[in-house]
Predict the structure.
Amino acid sequence: MYREVIEHPDSLPPVIKKHLDLTSGRDKGRLYRVIRADWSDEQRREQFTRALPGDATTAELVAMLAHPNGWHRTTAARLLYERNDPAAVGELRKLLDKSGAPIEGRVLALYGLQSAGQLDSAVLQATLSAAEPELREHAAKLASRWLREPAHEESPSRAGAERALIALADDPDLNVRYRVAFALGDCGDAPRIAALAKIVKRDAANVDVQVAVLSSLTQGAESLLHALIADQEFAATPAGRTFLAEIARQIGARGDQRELASLAADVVAARQLKQPIASELLVAALRGAGGQAADVRTQLSTQAAAIEPLIKDLVAASLQVAVDENAETEARVAAVNQLAMGEFVAVAPTLGELIAPHQPQEVQAAALAALRQFSEGDISEPVVAAWRGMSPALRLQGADLLLSRAATAAALVAAVESGQLTSRDLDPSTIQRLKTHADAAVRERAVKAFAASASTRDEVLAAYAKALELDGNVDQGRALFRKHCVVCHRREGVGTEVGADLATVLTRTPEALLVNVLDPNREVDPKFIQYNIVTVDGLAHSGVVSAETASTVTLTGAEKATQTVPRADIDVMESTGLSLMPEGFEREIDPQGIADLIAYLRSEL
């Protein structure tokens, strides 16, 4: 459309609104229709003189599912669903079986049969073995729903559908294998594990496939781990070791005695074969256990007598390497990771020392990650003590660590209350997370602790309106962007893409950008709203919901740090109603800096 200002008047602060003509563009037109440039006049007439779907018979609607125009296809599908005409079933079957028909139409026909309750095992098996990968992909997706329906749990035709689905574990198309990995969670254990193993060995390096496979392991995780670790060639590859560790993490998180017994046996066997994966599995299982790590360690030791001395030997060796400043950084990081297996009183002093500024950043980050695995002891003390010497990136990680539990989040607020830290020692995102923490007591204390530095957004905008009259320097703006904004935004190949795509801001007015930067919660796109999740073991996570499946929720935070949480582990999930981008940026930048930043954001690259 041609309106110059598309924001709703209520979303604009008065200090900016008074400079705008909100009706500018009222005398202009708008796009009416977009057509292909290579269409002939005859094609154009045919396209726009056809009967619209609402005037069509049921048979015509089914035929229209194969229409070249997407609107016609989706509208026809909607009308078929609304009419629920039994006469459509036969026509849908014909379209689905018509090999020469457009694939979009055949896929819609498949979904039409499903919504009509006419998707049976025979149709599923035929579609799962179709020549077209698009059909196989959608058939696998629908097979998962079909297998979960109570009416099909004991159906004689269930076995045939399962066999057809399992056969696709060898499918040449990645998208098909991805969908099959999700759907296999609804199949019987033995064939499911064998099929998942095939997919993993082929696609272990694909993160999306990893997530799909893991989602199908609500049962049988220990069986898949055992099958994969037996393949020593696979277990020796970087992708294989990463995936095996992820299964061990999932087993540790569940704490199931039978799964832990199998894991313990596999660890002992791998240790006897001198496979490095043995220690990695232990570390992953204890990390997955989170606050229950001590209990999981006890269970593992109970299941296999060799586990406890193995852990002690590994921790003792790791303590030596972790503090050896002559060792390679990579070796030190690996050693620090293994310290998470130790007892808190034995390793906490070393981990606290490793957060010191003179240590390599990778070692500091690993030490923070290791501290996160302990629920006992005061992990906040060494982190708060080292806070002022941490780099911005490490402070974000330290904030994630402390805010993951109510007690440690309270310790961070207490450091501000006592004067050990000031509000300027915490970035705006950490302050916002404290003020919106899942624990009510932490929220209340944080609001009081940071109240003295709070200003209303309208006051801030009024104070910074002078930036709109200043000449901005693009180079200075670039430097400010790279200092403050790259944890969530990306431009010129620098930064991470968590927040809004900055390609869309080139045409925004300076006034609009001023509001976006200083008052990010005035108007928030739902996909950038921050959520809090508290798991059943008390861990807190926050970020935007970047992905969801039937069994998991993925949150993404600053620096694109992601956390995939099984739905079964979620105790509380709620929206903060606020943007992931925090308020308070005015504490980091003056009006000239805002002018420079706006100039950079609006510059052509």
